[in-house]
Design a protein that fits this description.
2 strands; mainly alpha
């Protein structure tokens, strides 16, 4: 008989449930930030806690962005490692198409943003990374709700694209949004990561070693100036995937199964709660959304993502003569491209990194991310439901 705890954990592993919690958290933040009690919300976001001696006296908003999202990226890293070793990315022929789609879905939105902002006197080019991201949790939730009648190959394509997209996003954060680099703690983090990989190789399984080791990696990467979420994806990618004889599943699969409810049910929604609270007081949303910064984000996510995904897929299949799955049609790929325009979590994170020095620009960027994600989710729902009816009619 299933216990309430098991039922809860099973529910949190469902993309629909995780997506609903994420939306509720963001909605609460947005309403609270524009209510008569808005000051209480922003005081909560800026409340500082943590040991000063370790330079970790951070605001709750920073803990959510640097700490909780590290767990989210750890799960993404585990998923990516599994796909590379045992999943859909294990062979070059099957991996090339979704990887190319992910790259196209990052490059085209960034170029659109740069063109719009570089050609305007009031543009802000440094936000180019914002429309590159796809939110795994939100995108899969949209697919789970609106695409229930679609073949499983659509979900696999979207999942692979989104996971590769996350790797690209974390690389962009590490390389382009690191203002200053402190070498000593970065070297220390690399040493601890090597120790983690060695322990995995030696089949050490006790959490009493891994928990402090992982916290040490996170602390050192945070101290180095590189965004601390890099620690999560690095640890995920170094985790062993292949099960040994007698193991039902490898450590990566077990950890993913264990951490996914924490990530989907708490970490990502908590970050959304602390990041999505945009105060609209004194600003005109329609006017803001026509400014180069916001326009670049909205056009990049809503239009650039599907154009990049479909265009890159077309190039690979035509010039490399690699076919997509027989059951998938180009309209399915278009639908996936529209879903990929749901940037949300990672786009909000990059917004905070790009415009942390300007509250007004950060507000504009967040408003654009929220608007673009909602538009993409609505358009994707329509496209997915239409494709679902098509596949249902074919199957009969």
């Amino acid at each position: 008989m299933a216990t309430p705890t098991k039922v809860l954990l099973a529910g949190l592993r469902d993309e629909t449930v995780g997506g609903v919690i994420l939306l509720i958290s963001a909605a609460i933040a947005l309403v609270w930030a524009n209510s008569p009690w808005a000051s209480a919300y922003f005081n909560l976001v800026n409340f500082q806690v943590g040991p000063e001696a370790l330079h970790l006296n951070l605001t709750l908003g920073q803990w959510a962005a640097d700490g909780l999202l590290a767990i989210f990226f750890f799960v993404a890293g585990l998923e990516l490692k599994y796909e590379f070793v045992l999943g859909s990315l294990r062979t070059a022929s099957t991996a090339l198409v979704p990887i190319a789609a992910a790259l196209g879905g990052m490059i085209i939105p960034a170029l659109i943003y740069v063109v719009i902002n570089a050609t305007s006197a009031s543009g802000h080019v440094n936000g180019w990374g914002i429309p590159m991201a796809t939110d795994i949790a939100f995108a899969l939730a949209v697919l789970a709700v609106a695409g229930r009648k679609l073949p499983v190959e659509v979900r696999i394509f979207l999942l692979t694209l989104a996971v590769v997209d996350d790797l690209g996003a974390i690389t962009v954060i590490a390389v382009f949004y690191t203002e200053s680099l402190v070498l000593a703690p970065l070297i220390g983090a690399v040493v601890l990561l090597a120790a983690y990989a060695w322990l995995q190789y030696k089949r050490v399984s006790t959490p009493w070693i891994y928990v402090p080791l992982a916290f040490g990696v996170w602390t050192l990467i945070h101290a180095s100036g590189v965004h601390a979420t890099v620690a999560g994806i690095a640890l995920g990618l170094l985790t062993r995937v292949r099960p040994d004889r007698g193991e039902e599943a490898g450590p990566a699969e077990r950890l993913q199964h264990g951490f996914h409810p924490l990530s989907a049910g708490f970490c990502v929604p908590a970050f959304a709660f602390f990041a999505a609270g945009v105060s609209l007081a004194g600003i005109q949303p329609l006017q803001t959304l026509t400014e180069p910064l916001a326009l670049g984000i909205v056009v990049g996510l809503v239009i650039g993502k599907p154009v990049g995904v479909v265009g890159a897929t077309l190039l690979v299949t035509r010039f490399k003569k690699i076919a997509i799955a027989d059951i998938l049609g180009w309209r399915d790929i278009i639908a996936v491209g529209i879903v990929a325009g749901v940037g949300f979590t990672v786009s909000l994170l990059i917004s905070e990194l790009a415009f942390e020095e300007s509250a007004s620009l950060l507000t504009d960027a967040k408003l654009a991310v929220l608007t673009a994600s909602v538009i993409s989710a609505l358009l994707a729902s329509i496209a997915l439901m239409r494709r679902g009816r098509h596949h249902e009619a074919i199957s009969g």
